[in-house]
Design brief:
The protein has 127 residues and is mainly α. It has one domain.
Length: 127
Amino acid sequence: MLSRIKSWASGLKRDAHAIYLASRDPRVPWYAKALAIAVAGYALSPIDLIPDFIPIIGYLDELVLLPLGIWLVVSLIPPEVMIECRARADEAGQRPTSRAGMVAIILLWIAGALMLGWAGYAWWSRP
C-alpha cells in the first residue's frame, strides 16, 4: 500500500510538471492553458496557500485541492498532448520552481490580511 501511495505522489509531481509544459503548447485550448498556469504555478510554488504547520488543514491543499486541480487540468488537455508532456516531464528529471506562483500566493495572503483587518475595523468601530 505504501508503494502505491509513493507512486501516486510521484505521478502527481510528474503531472504538475507536465501541465506546466502543456500550458505552453499551442494545441491546448486557452481555458485549459489558463487553468494549467494557475494549477502548475501553485503546485511548483515553494510556498503553500495553507502553511503545513497548521494542524490538519495544513496538508489539505496537498491531499485534496492540488490533486483535484491537476485532475481537472489533465481532463481538459487533449490526450496526445498530455502523453507527450508526461514523457518530456519524465525526461527532465528535475522539476522547475514557480516564482510567479510564490508571488501570487504572497499577494493572496496580503490581500486576505488587509480584508480581515478592514472587516475587523469596520466591526469594532461601529457605534
